Amino acid sequence: xxxxxxxxxxxxxVSIHNYPYNKSINTDDDFDCVKVEISDLDxxxxxxxxxxxxxxxxxxxxxxxxxxxxxxxxxxxxDSLKRSSIFLRLINIIYPILILMLLLFNYTYEIIICQGKxxxxxxxxxxxxVRTTTKTDIITTGVTRNHSAGTWATLQPGKTRPHTTxxxxxxxxxxxxxxxxxHIFTTYILPDIFxxxxxxxGFIYFRVTEGEPMYSLMEKVFIHADHQNIRxxxxxxxxxxxxxxxxxxxxxxxxxxxxxxxxxAMNDFAHTLIFHDAQFHVVxxxxxxxxxxxxxxICLLISNCIHMAVVMNYACHCEMILFxxxxxxxxxxxxxxxxxxxxxxxxDLGVSISQLNSAASRMMSILIIFFIERTILGFIxxxxxxxxxxxxxxxxxxxxxxxxxxxxxxxxxxARVTSKCDKFYRISLSMRVYxxxxxxxxxxxxxxxxxxxxxxxxxxxxxxxRPGKIIFIGITTLLVFIVLFQTSIISxxxxxx
Length: 497
Hints:
Blueprint: E1 2-4, E2 11-19, E3 33-41, H1 48-70, H2 86-112, H3 128-131, H4 135-144, H5 166-179, H6 184-209, H7 212-224, H8 227-232, H9 235-266, H10 287-334, H11 339-383, H12 390-434, H13 441-452, E4 459-460, E5 463-464, H14 467-486
Antiparallel strand pairs: 1-2, 2-3, 4-5
Helix pairs in contact: 1-7, 1-9, 1-10, 2-6, 2-10, 4-5, 6-10, 6-11, 7-10, 9-10, 9-12, 10-11, 10-12, 11-12, 12-13
């Protein structure tokens, strides 16, 4: 007898041996003593479905569950057969609170340091034109701003402002103008609200379900894929594609963190309003700068791992549904399945899509708004950039590419599922015209009506995602930007724009 193990990708073999009981020990027992031996099942199991599930659990589910443990969405040691110790249960309470504190720190700190330098007006141009003024202009500016210019650090009670010169006043004004964040609500607070809501939904979802919907979908898909379909397109191909998704997600997290580190390095790892001395000179070698930088990188890593967890959960669900859809569609095209069995499987496919359109779709929809905002902002900053330095161009390009790539990947996965499911209706029309073995006209009409009401559509924001819609929105957005460039509403010093 074989059963799946929860903490190992191998199955278990349970051997039962009967031995005569000892009447001198227990004279009232009429049953024999039973000896049970449990051993691991190696990869010589003849069932290909079992081997595929074992491989998928080892290479896909285990890394994904470790990712969920990293961001606090899954308790540590939950797969162990032993009861959790008091220390581990205490860790499972403290660790999510720590993750929450790191996220709140990240939300606050990015506003203070103007994370990413995302102000279109001040962060796309240098201050050389302001600095190249005459001596008379400097004196005039110093007198004018002597009573108004200053930084937040001077607004401390009990401290008098030090004696300043006109040139120092100009320097302080430049620090104030170029360091102060603009459009804080739309640039930082609103996206952070979206990110926090997605985190809470994901925490509740994975703490309740423990990621079982993905594994149950894999089991159902692999079981329904018969040997003929395995030879045609292969379960191993689906597993390789899921592994590729996990690899691309890891690369995306590393690139996004590296892009943020590049931004901080260009801005000397900190904000001038935090790290300066009493004379308003920026301190270069203060240890707190690098401590805050390290904590900020850790927070950003956790934040982007949350993005990766939501996207991987959604993308893997879509890929398994695509695999299931293709298995049913090939059977219908081969006319090797009766209509009643086909309707049962399509109905089961509709249930899987409905599960995808529930909590997973809500998390994904919220982050899609986040990705769209970052992509549009990054594109505008890239076009309007007037800081002609190699590191700035690399940063602006990577920032736009990072958010556009994950946005296109998520929308592409949802559109693929809807597009593949629409082929069922076209197949049913062909069956109605050319007939189907052992099926009457009324049965074909019923099958056609069944597919029209099945609702095999993936939704984001409550709307069906189709390839045509994405292409239309993309072309419309491109045309809007072209008009904005032509009318100089969005201007750039680049000759080509």
